[in-house]
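cron nightly-structures :: item 1 of 1
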Amino acid sequence: MVKNGSKQSGATKTARRILISQPRPESDKSPYFDLERKYKVELVFHPFIKLEGIPAKEFRKQKIDIMQYSAVIFTSRNAIDHFFRTCEEMKVTIGQDTKYFCITEAVALYLQKFILYRKRKVFYGADGTNKSMFDVINKHKENEKFLYVCSENQQDNEIVTWLKSNNCEFQLAFMYRTISNDIKEVIEGKEYDVICFFTPSGVKSLFDNLPGFKQNGTVIGAFGNNTSKAVEDAGLKLEIKVPSPQKPSMVSALDQFLASTVSKK
């Protein structure tokens, strides 16, 4: 069990082992590995969830005519993958005038895998927060019909609420779903000083695998408002909340957190 019996807050001691609930980065140049070297910590990567594409036959039941939408909202690379997969399965050709609104520049650049990238057609938030993406959408929302591509069981409610309150014409398009991964091998009997979550489904997966999980001093990090809410709703103490203007990414948040633990040694 993670940190069994430990009552000491992670903020007052140096973290040594951090569990990142995502796949290991493919590139050795990932900034996560810079953190390992800088602070001499061990990062363990293991995805807490698996994505399952909703086949075109099932998607058709949503009665969405993709070609009727002039703008698409993406909050992840996975959403982009499944959007273009669905279009291919349904033999839908996306118009060149379609606008794409992305949560970060990294997500926006991923579109190059599928389209001829034109900056005037692709927009993204300045700092990775929903608010920065809303600021961009707000400048272009007139006469646009938005398709928000998301998971069947993991929509960002803040985005939905904003679209509604700002009178945007939009539709949720469920093109994939998340299911809990088997994480028992990586977490049972192991000690981690920090666990980082990136989706509400990741939090659910933890308790699906370990219904009796106790935090016991383990520092919890969460990316995104919905993930933060899921952590707190599960009765866990949240100490690392991302993103923010000072901490736009989980890497930057961990950098600040680890620097603070070193300074308090």
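cron nightly-structures :: done
The longest strand covers residues 169-180.
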